[in-house]
Amino acid sequence: MNSKFIKTFAVIVIISAGMTACGQKKNVTTDDVSEKEMVNIHETAAQEIITQEITTEKEPEDDEYVLVNKYIPDIYVELMYATDNNFTGVRIYDFTDAYLRYGTVKKLANVQKELKEQGYSLKIWDAYRPFEAQQKLWEVYPDPNYVANPANGMKKHNLGGTVDITMVAADGTVISMPTEFDDFSLKADRDYSDIEDEEAVKNVMILQNAMENNGFTGYQGEWWDYSDTVEYEAVDFEP
Question: Which residues contact 59 (CB under 8 A, 6 or more apart)?
Fold first, then answer.
């Protein structure tokens, strides 16, 4: 056989083999890309479903009880009556999450946003209080200046629109305020002329202005006590 023909045939075979190999390599790469694209498509679809479930969740009515942290995740909560670290020395109720009416929570969210922009945060000491807890408080301290008399029915904290609240640094650090929680001295009222700590007065006024500007009124005898300007009807609620 002509040697020139043999050489030419060999070159053609080598070239063909190389093209086939390249084609196979190209197909593998294409398959890999396709698999990655499919994974991305599935992940995107799953995320869209999750997002749709979140966004399509029915918004509560204003008078519904809700978990505060669900709608204000960065708010601090330390329910003093869920511990024995309160003026009674005993635990008043056994839950540790704060609940309020949704309409009240929306207002608190606005306060929180305003304070966070200034480097502060809200901290809840007491929110919804079951009527049984109110009766227990009255038994321990029957003074209508500081504890609502349960004989008058469900009031304030029992209606889910009142909150005992303070202000802390954005990272949760305690800052100067006029008194501790449940201080029954005259220094706990909203006449701050007897408070010598100027920083405490400045801080409590920041809190007071933010609360009042967003639909709350403060109880004169306690700087930490605020009620929604909207009063809700009494309903049975178990946290």
Answer: none
